[in-house]
Design a protein that fits this description.
By secondary structure, the protein is mainly alpha-helical. It contains 3 helices and no strands.
Length: about 140
């Protein structure tokens, strides 16, 4: 092998190596550019989702506040209903006491009144029996 052939082979190898380096750098640039574009898209999507998450979080907080308000109103109405029921029960009990007291007094008055038997007989007599006419 002559020196010229060896030089030609070395030059050919160097040219091929240089071409491989240039092609490799070109591919690397394209890959890096694709990655930059993809990273930009991912960042944009992440920002969009972050804004959506903040909006949803605000809506959830607002809905939770409304639910708490409704629960507080329901609790207040329930407390009012319990108070009203207790007051109604107390009044019913008091009315029963007054009724029993009135009945006891009426019975005691009947026991003391010598004419009570005649009055009770008049109350028991059917209408039109003539007993009211006899007393007048």
């Amino acid at each position: 092998m002559s020196t010229g052939a060896i030089v030609a082979i070395v030059v050919g190898v160097l040219v091929i190596a240089a071409l491989l380096v240039v092609v490799s750098l070109g591919m690397r640039r394209r890959r890096d550019e694709r990655r930059r574009v993809e990273a930009g898209e991912l960042r944009q999507e992440a920002q969009s989702r972050s804004l959506r998450a903040e909006r949803e979080g605000a809506l959830a907080a607002e809905q939770e506040a409304r639910a708490k308000q409704a629960q507080a109103e329901a609790d207040e109405k329930e407390a009012i209903a319990r108070r009203e029921a207790a007051a109604a029960q107390e009044r019913a009990t008091e009315a029963g006491r007054h009724r029993r007291f009135a009945q006891d007094r009426a019975q005691r008055a009947d026991e003391l009144d010598p004419d009570a038997d005649a009055d009770r007989a008049d109350e028991r007599a059917p209408a039109g029996s003539g007993r009211d006419d006899e007393r007048r």
